[in-house]
Amino acid sequence: MSIKYIRLIFKIAFPGLALASGAVLLADGSQAGQAVPAVSRPALTVRTTTLREEKWTRTLAANGSIVPWQEAIISAQVQGLRIAEVKVSIGDHVHQGDVLVTLDNISRTGNEPGSSYSAQGRIVAPDSGVISAANANVGSMPKSGEELFRLIRKGRLEWRADLTAEELMLMRKGMSAEVAVGEGRIINGTVRAISPSVNPQTRYGYALVTLPDSKGIVAGAFARGIFDVSGGKIRLQSLPQSAVMQRGSKTYVLIVGPDNRVHERAVTVGLRNSDHIQIKHGLKADEPVVESGGAFLTEGDVVLVVKG
Fold first, then answer.
1. In the prediction, which pLDDT does 14 show?
2. DSSP for 72-112?
3. Helix (H/G/I), strand (E/B), else coil: 9
4. For residue 297, with 0-12 CB atoms within 10 Å meaning exposed, 13-18 middle and 19 or more buried, which class applies?
5. Which of 78, 111, 210, 276 is the most exposed place for a label (fewest CB within 10 A)?
6. Cβ-contact 144, 125 below 8 angstroms
């Protein structure tokens, strides 16, 4: 085949290849020129929640001790008489007028006033109650006014709750309280008295709570309690605490928009109750909020919402 013939074939074929190549480039160029929608993959699968209207009781928790309601001190009225018999001990229940101690009836009479001791032959309980301390011993000769016994009057105990000045200002007489003593025992009581000041060293004052059923409780025992400081139920709106997040001083939730993108929304919170928290401001009743897992999301993330 001559060189001239080969050159002729090449001239005919090359423009055809160029044309085909141009068609491909044109096709690719037209595809690239069209707007291709971006596909965003969900960052997380979430459940949503909305504000829930509830009725709560505002409470205040405190610690304290079980103390006697009133404690009577029983002592000898005259001296010079020996204790012959001690009839009671610590923890004994006595009734008013029960004999606690008998004394050697050393009768000395004379002309001088106060010289007769014949009437001091026994010491009796001034009231019903429980003996909480006993210092009387057979054979001893107590001095006048010397303490022999202490008596918890009526056997009544109460809870002394330690409170700060701010907490004391929330207290009212007659306010209800639940006191936890022993192994899960709950006693319903009421506030009987409130201290008008706090201790300058500890900065704590106290409220005294009457316990109508104090059987089986020991004075001096530690106890926890909860006061109802709202005076009844208050209506509010709340979210699960898992839906509310904190960053520095900012409290916020994540709203899920119509396009399934999340957006931060600052909110103002209030009371806490179990696993819910009051939302005061910043959120409408029907706005969907990420219920949990919000810490793994950032502003603008796309989520897949599933129904619970």
1. 41
2. EEEE-SSSS--EEEE---TT-EE-TT-EEEEE-------SS
3. helix
4. buried
5. 111
6. no
Helix, strand, coil: what percent of the chain each, to 5? 15, 45, 45
Q: DSSP code of 302?
A: B
Closest by CA position to 81, among listed 34, 161, 153, 141 = 141
**CATH code of domain 44-56+234-305:** 2.40.420.20
Compare 82 and 31 and report the one with higher pLDDT.
82
Residue 271: count of CB within 10 angstroms of its CB: 16
Q: For residue 185, what are the CA distances in angstroms to 48, 156, 188? A: 38, 17, 10
Q: How far is CA 303 from CA 36, 40, 67, 112, 267, in A?
A: 22, 10, 58, 102, 21
Let me know: does 237 contact 66? Beta carbons within 8 Å. Answer: no
User: How many angstroms separate the CA atoms of 177 and 306, rounded?
Assistant: 43
Across 14-23, 53-62, 184-193, least confident range: 14-23
Strand partners, 215: none
Q: What average pLDDT does this structure show over 52-58?
A: 87
- pTM score, two decimals? 0.61
3-state secondary structure of 165: helix
Average pLDDT taken over every residue of the chain: 84
* CATH number of this structure's domain 60-67+156-232, picked from the four choices 2.30.30.40, 3.60.10.10, 3.40.50.11710, 2.40.30.170: 2.40.30.170
Q: Which single residue is written with the structure tokens 């899920």?
A: 256
d(CA 45, CA 53): 26
Alpha carbons 129 and 175: distance in angstroms, whole number: 27
Phi, psi angles (nearest 5°) of residue 132: -105, -15
Q: What fold characterizes domain 71-153?
A: OB fold (Dihydrolipoamide Acetyltransferase, E2P) (2.40.50)
Strand partners of residue 179? 187, 225
Q: Quick check: 230 and 270 in contact, CB under 8 A?
A: no
pLDDT on residue 18: 39
